[in-house]
Amino acid sequence: MSGHETADLDEFQSFGDVTASATRVTPGNALRPEDIAVQGEPPSSEAVAEYALWLGDDALILAQRLSWWISRAPEIEEDIALGNIALDQLGHARSFLTYAGKFWGKTEDDLAYWREEEEFRSCHLMEQPNGDFGVTIARQLFVSVYQYLLYTRLAESADSTIAAIAAKAVKEVDYHRDHAAQWTLRLGRGTEESAARIRRAVEDLWPYVGELFEDQPYADQRMHDDVVAAGVGVAPSTLRAEWDEQIAAILAEAGLEVPQVPFAMGGGRRGEHSEHLGYLLAEMQVLARKHPGASW
Amino acid sequence: MTDTTVWPLWEVFVRSSRGLSHVHAGSLHAPDQEMALRNARDLYTRRNEGVSIWVVRSEDIVASDPGAKDQFFESPKGKDYRHATYYTKSEGVKHL
Question: What ipTM describes this predicted complex?
Answer without folding.
Answer: 0.82
